[in-house]
Fold this sequence. Notes:
Structural class: alpha+beta
Oligomer: single chain
Shape: globular
Number of helices: 5
Number of strands: 8
Amino acid sequence: MGYIHNWFIKKEILDVKKWNNVINDLEKLKMLLPKHSKSSGAYYALEPLIIKGVVLNENEIKFNGGNKIENGGNKIEDLAHEDFHVSRINKTIKNRNGFCKTNRKPYDLYVQVVLIILRHHFEDDFIFRSDGDFEEWSEAFNFVRKHIDLKYKDSYYLFLINILWSEYL
């Protein structure tokens, strides 16, 4: 089954101004990511946090984890799993339901960050749930809160909001 995050976008087209604010926040936060991640149970705490294939533009957000490469250039560990992908324009209900299975790999921290930022800007128009518990999300909440002025100052409160909304997913 794996470790998964699900989301639902209530509108076919998300507001472009809010979307641009999301992109600005995500570009800033991507530059500030730590070298390692202890999110999602810290299963890969000693592995590098690598983000590859990043698309942050006026219509989509897309990325995955990267590969750990040894000095000889050979891949020694695959730190990627499934692509994270969210679009601003989603004409069908099917396209407005999304998920990403990260298997708790280091890039999961950025997945959590993106979900928090989307919820922050789009509020009830973007809802998500996760297999992770509060402890597994605490690093992402604290990271975002340190760098972005969130509407919800209390990370536990934001976490509960999303768990309560999970009945709709």
